[in-house]
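An example makes the point: we print one protein in full, the chain in one-letter code, the fold tokenised, without further comment:
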Amino acid sequence: MSLVPQRCTVLIVDDEPSICALLETQLGHDFQVFTANTVNGVRKRFQETPIHILLCDYFLGTETATEILDWVHQHYPRTARILLTGMHAIENAVEAVNTARVHRLILKPWRPDDLLAMLRQVARGLLLEASHEQLLEELRRLNSQLEQRVQERTRELESALNQLQIKNQILEKMALTDALTGLPNRRAIELIARKELLRRTRIPAPISFGLIDADRFKQINSRYLLSGGDHVLVWLGQVLQSAIRATDAIGRVGGEEFMVVAPNTDFYGATTLAERLRRSVADTETVYRNNSIRVTVSVGFAVVNQNDPIGYEALREIAAAAVAEAKAAGRNCCVVRRVS
């Protein structure tokens, strides 16, 4: 049974028809009353109708109330079980009370008002119990819904956090990437340079720092306009990128100028790298709108020995001076300076 209705059902079990009729009369105004006088009759009634209260006489001829009460206790434990007995059979009734866990024991002769009051009390208890169960079920349902909503919200928040992390990674990459060439921008390559300089304070090693400047780039912009100049810069970034080693880093620092950071690279290594960068540009060409375009670069490198301390600004200044010297020497050449 789920929720007990306001008008509870009472099943009277007694083998005396007169008693059943009397109880029906006394209880019929407050309860929906049914009667039975055998075990089979009780089982049939329970199968047909939800019974809320069982009122059973102890003496049932050849059958015992204990058998009926125990069967109801086993199969319909929510039905309130009330046993009617006389004082002379009180000791025998204890067996039924203990076996079937009877809720109430009424001694004969009973007073109609007392019997009715007791049944009303039992009915109120059933109503309260059913109401309590309904509230608990509603609470379980609400808790289940709340848990589901929390799980859904958690998944939504995790998804949103995921998206935010992805977007932050994209923004971070955009903030450190040159939009035109796809190489690290000035901020990114400077961070790389400072990181490598900091690393060599813990693990002394030589380092080389280079600047690459496209020669006479204004002429390209004048002849092929800005779109042509952009095309050349993209091509130039690709060529330079392919010429460095996996341990090196290259970035565009502005205009037609690029920066190279080469860790663990001494004077000989820097000279080789500078020449490879210069030659890789000079020996190739790009095509823009059916026009073959050749570009040369001037390369300046500053090389720091293993144990020599130096800061980023000083190193960049020396590399810039080396590029200026390469420009003055006629362009399309390399100048590598030792930092003393």
User: Anything to note?
Assistant: The domain at 186-338 is CATH 3.30.70.270 (Alpha-Beta Plaits). The first helix runs from residue 17 to 27. Residues 232 and 286 are 7 Å apart (CA to CA). The chain is about 55% helix and 20% strand.
